[in-house]
Amino acid sequence: MNYFLWILVVLILLVIFRVIKGPTIWDRVLAFNLISHKFIIFIVIFASIESTTFLLDLAIIYALFGFLGEIFLIMFLADRVRGGKEE
Amino acid sequence: MIEIISNVIISIGIFFLIIGVFGIYKFKDFYRRLLVSSKVDTVGAITILIGVIIRHGFSFFSAKTLLILALILILNPLTAHILLRTAYVSGHLLENEDNKKGD
């Protein structure tokens, strides 16, 4: 059961490498989205191994606020990348 | 017995995640990467969370996991759509015949 966590850690490291390497800024935002998604699954599996229910609240809150943070990040990037020129 | 079943289901979900990460490195264009990875990740999350629910049977734990499953089902496609639309609107060109570069 523990090796699931190790596989997830390796996957997260691979996606972190994609954040560093990503040519455009949008690849980085996409990779960041995938990292937070995998981290939620990591928490759920870890909570299932320890079978403690309060860890799942962590995953719920992290899912919600991660989503919020990303929306504001994307809105900020949209203005900055376009350089403020209106179509 | 239930332990084995849930382990098999969770490993299938992990396999989906591996395909998602592989998809990121295989495709060269941002849009193809997003298309593959967001879909495969959502499916992987569904499989893993169902495996966890089976493992814990009928309890508060699986009720919370069901809530997380619903959240992921709603939030992940939404994030992918917002990301895609903003990238396209703010001038991240699609790679097509006339502009081969696409970035």
Write out key terms for the chains shown.
heterodimer, A: 87 residues, mainly alpha, 86% helix, flat, B: 103 residues, 3 helices, 80% helix, 0% strand, elongated
Structure description:
The complex is a heterodimer of chains A (about 90) and B (about 100). Chain A is about 85% helix and about 0% strand. Chain A is mostly helical. Chain A has one domain (about 5-75). Chain A is flat, with a radius of gyration of 16 Å. The mean pLDDT of chain A is about 85. With about 100 residues, chain B is an all-alpha fold. Chain B has one domain (about 1-90). Chain B is about 80% helix and about 0% strand. Chain B contains three helices and no strands. Chain B has helices at about 1-25, 30-55, 60-90. In chain B, helix 1 packs antiparallel against helix 2 and helix 2 (about 30-55) runs antiparallel to helix 3. The longest helix of chain B has 30 residues, at about 60-90. The mean pLDDT of chain B is about 85. At the A-B interface, helix 1, helix 2 and helix 3 of A face helix 1, helix 2 and helix 3 of B.
Number of domains of chain B: 1
Strand content of chain B: under 5%
Mean pLDDT of chain A: 87
Order of helices and strands of chain A: HHH
Overall number of strands of chain A = 0
Q: What class do helices, strands and sheet pairing of chain A give?
A: mainly alpha
N-C termini distance of chain B: 51 Å
Largest sheet of chain B: none
Largest sheet of chain A: none
Low-confidence stretches of chain B: none
Which chains make the largest contact?
A: A-B, 42 and 46 residues
Distance between the termini of chain A: 53 Å
Shape of chain A: flat
- The value of Rg of chain B in angstroms is 17 Å
The count of helical stretches of chain A stands at 3
Tell me the Rg of chain A in angstroms: 16 Å
Describe the structure in brief:
The complex is a heterodimer of chains A (87) and B (103). Chain A has 87 residues and is mainly α.
